[in-house]
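[Automated response] Your request has been received and processed.

Submitted sequence:
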Amino acid sequence: MKNIILTLLVLCTFTMNTQAQTFVREFDSKTEKPLLRGQITFEDITTESAFSWIYDEYESSPIIVSKLKDLLPKYRIVVFIGTWCEDTQYLLPQLFQTLKDASFDFNALEMYGVNRAKKGLNSEHQIYNIQKVPTIIIMDRFKEVGRIVESVESTIEKELLDILEAY
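Generated structure:
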C-alpha cells in the first residue's frame, strides 16, 4: 500500500512539474523571428513585439456573434498555432476578435504554440493529432465537437456557428 501511495505521489509531482513550464521562446531558423512553443495565452502573444499581426483589425458579424454568445459558454476551445505561420497570422486575430465580441470566457480556451514540425512542448500535439496550423478544436468536456483546420471557407464566426449548430 505504501508503494502505491508513493508511486501516485511521484506521478502527481512529475505531472505538476511538467505542467509548470507552460511555453518556451525559441527562434525560428527560417525567419529568425521568435517562435512560441507550448501552452500560451493571447497575452503571451500580445506582449511579444514580433507578433504585431495579432492586432489586425477584424469586424465579426454581429448577427452571428449574438448566436455564438448563447452557444459558446457550453464549450471549451483548444487552439494550435504556429507563430511563424501565415495562416495563423491571418486567422488568429479573427478568432480573438470574434471570441471577445461573443464575451467568451478565455478561461475555457487552451492554446498551444508548435514549431514548424507541428510539435508542441509536451505531447499535446499528439493527443489532438495536429497535422496543420492553425487548428481550432471545439470541445464538449473531453469530446471533440468539430475543428477548423488551417483556413475557413466563409468566416471564422460562421464556421464556429456551423460546428455548434450541427452538434
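Summary generated for your ticket: Residues 2-20 form the longest helix (19 residues). The two ends are 45 Å apart (CA to CA).
If you did not submit this request, please reply to this message.
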